[in-house]
Design a protein that fits this description.
CATH architecture of the largest domain: 3-Layer(aba) Sandwich
CATH superfamily of the largest domain: P-loop containing nucleotide triphosphate hydrolases
Number of strands: 5
CATH topology of the largest domain: Rossmann fold
Distance between the termini: 70 Å
Number of domains: 3
Strand content: 5-15%
Helix content: 55-70%
Shape: elongated
CATH class of the largest domain: Alpha Beta
Radius of gyration: 25 Å
Order of helices and strands: HHHEHHEHEHEHEHHHHHHHHH
Structural class: alpha/beta
Strand order of the largest sheet: 2-3-4-1-5
């Protein structure tokens, strides 16, 4: 099915699913991993696989592309079992559904079945231990692909039974061409700063970039920097510059009032403001001991925010830290 036909039949499909790669050749990143798996598939020597890395980096897309390359659409449902975190994957499912799928052979198709365990870091330890034996017992006719974000959540016994591949965050040069392809297909009006904002906010997560772009496109005529940041409720660079300017140059009351007004007007969370200020402080030229003082205080504020304390009090604490830093600089001058 061509993209045009697909567009006509599925006009309401989220772009993440609509533009999910169908074949290994369509994948945009981790060329070394893709070529290695491509060789496995060609030689029909696919091992058990363990994919790990941050979200939106192509782990699930890779194994689904492999499965679609091996099986025809008719065979797909009988040869591939896909379970993710929304399915119950306790020890009962491993001993029941997975065991019965892995143990049954197909009459009409020689070769192996594939079991995809997505978000496997959510599986209980007992279920992972039970899976060990199933993997060993049915290697002859079933291959397992375990996908997770955190390798440390997978027991060593499972790790040793699989070939591991790490999917790192995507680079700008990998994301932009793919986003450009979607822009062309969907007729999105996007500016250069809009594209830059998408890539910055996504932080190497392709799924996040597509979701933000689709949301912004639906909400506004044009996808530009301002609209992208407004759509996700993230502070703009100039907002952060204003905030730092207020906390360093205005008195406490004015700075507090201005920041509170900005937060209310744009619906910003103090956590997001703090993250951006942290990055900004690293970039500006301050005496090293002042910078250390600020970073320590910001770490404290962030810890307290994560514990669920009052945003108003933590905002006061953040402003106080900057005003104390300003006094340190003045005292030295």
């Amino acid at each position: 099915m061509t993209t045009k036909e697909e567009k006509a039949t599925n006009p309401n499909l989220p772009w993440v699913e609509k533009y999910r790669p169908k074949q290994l050749d369509d994948l945009i990143s981790h060329k070394d991993i893709i070529s290695t798996i491509g060789k496995f598939v060609k030689e029909e020597r696919l091992p058990h696989l363990l994919f790990y890395g941050p979200p939106g980096t192509g782990k699930t897309s890779t194994i689904l592309a492999v499965a679609k390359q091996i099986y025809s659409p008719k065979e797909f449902n009988s040869m591939v079992l896909e379970l993710n975190a929304s399915d119950d994957r306790g020890i009962g499912i491993v001993r029941g559904q997975i065991l019965s799928f892995a143990s049954t052979r197909t009459i009409f198709k020689s070769g192996f079945k594939i079991v995809i365990l997505d978000e496997a870091d959510a599986m209980t330890r007992d279920a992972q231990n039970a899976l060990r034996r199933v993997i060993e017992k049915f290697t002859e006719n079933t291959r397992f692909c375990i996908i997770c974000n955190y390798l440390s959540k997978i027991i060593p016994a499972l790790q040793s039974r699989c070939t591991r591949f790490r999917f790192g965050p995507l680079g700008t040069d990998q994301m932009v061409p793919r986003l450009q392809h979607v822009v062309t297909e969907e007729g999105v009006t996007i500016t250069d700063d809009g594209m830059k904002a998408l890539v910055t906010l996504a932080e190497g997560d392709m799924r996040k970039a597509l979701n933000i772009m689709q949301s912004t496109h639906m909400a506004y005529e044009e996808v530009n920097e301002n609209n992208v940041y407004t759509c996700v409720g993230h502070p703009l660079r100039r907002d952060i510059e204003n905030i730092v300017n207020w906390v360093l140059n205005e008195n406490f009351t004015t700075a507090y009032r201005n920041i509170t007004d900005l937060k209310t007007k744009k619906g910003l969370a103090l956590q997001d403001i703090l993250t951006e200020i942290h990055n900004y402080v690293h970039r500006i030229d301050l005496p090293i001991h002042v910078k250390i003082h600020l970073l320590e205080k910001m770490a404290d504020v962030e810890y307290r925010l994560a514990s669920g304390t009052s945003e108003k009090m933590q905002l006061s604490s953040l402003i106080s830290a900057f005003q104390a830093a300003r006094d340190l600089i003045v005292a030295e001058a």
